[in-house]
Amino acid sequence: MNSRQRRGIIWMLLSTVGALAAFVGVLSVLNDVESKVGPEVTAYEVKAGIEPYQALSRDQFTEVRMPERWLPRTAVTDLAAIDGKIAVNPLQQGSLLQNDMIADRPALEAGQQEIAIMIDAATGVAGKITPGARVNVYATFRGEGDTPDVSQVIVQAARVIDVGRLTSIESDGDTGRGGPGGTGEAVPITFALDTAGAQRIAYAESFATHVRLALVAPGDDVDIPQDERDYTLSEDR
């Protein structure tokens, strides 16, 4: 073996050693990054905006991978968690799905039935009534002849089980919803009521000039006295 061949072998060995050193360095950097970031886990993001109180389905979310150490403790990591759930608040596109964003839809109790009516968004809901809330339902009826107009408590402590989407409506000329000859916005509210309560709600929606909801404070189970359930303006004169 001559000197030129020996130099060639030496350079080849040096190149191999250098390549191995570079490979080991890359592995070291990767291991260091992994040790700092940690393993990745599955989470879910909202594909498109979701309205509050809307029933959730799996196709509304997309899977993402992110380091476990950066994932909030409340993040949803299994989409089975949304089965039978509704959105508590508006969910924005790209938001990370978390457990405090969803809630169970309140279920019916024995002897109850669902009934839904449209409630004026400005005067009857105001964004504060959510599934599970208790409300008093007030209805105003026009008097005929010498009979004065009257406001009545139609149902006390009705349980709300669903709040629908804001909907544009036209005035029907009788109830005044949307204003005379105009349009307005209303929200379908679903209640869990017994037969008598459902009948009162249906009657009020059909014949009352206005139907309004009053939110009841949690734990407040005081009955409204019978002599306070009806009101006419003449009582204050």
The proportion of residues in beta strands is 25-35%
Radius of gyration: 32 Å
Figure out the total of helices: 3
Structural class: alpha+beta
Strand element count = 11
Instruction: Assign a percent range to the helix content.
Output: 10-25%
Low-confidence stretches: 175-180
Describe this structure in words.
The chain is of the alpha+beta class and 237 residues long. It has 2 domains: 40-104, Type Iii Antifreeze Protein Isoform Hplc 12 (Alpha-Beta Complex); 113-236, no CATH class. It contains 3 helices and 11 strands. It has helices at residues 3-37, 121-125, 195-207, and strands at 40-46, 61-67, 85-87, 102-104, 113-120, 134-141, 150-163, 167-170, 183-193, 210-215, 230-231. The strands form 3 sheets. Strands 5, 6, 7, 8, 9, 10 and 11 form a 7-stranded antiparallel sheet that branches. The chain has a two-stranded antiparallel sheet with strand order 1-2. Strand 6 and strand 7 form a beta hairpin. It starts with a helix and ends in a 6-residue tail after the last strand. Residues 175-180 have low confidence and may be disordered.
Summed up, what is this model?
This protein has 237 residues and is α+β, with helices and mostly antiparallel strands.
Key phrases:
alpha+beta, 7-stranded antiparallel beta sheet, two-stranded antiparallel sheet
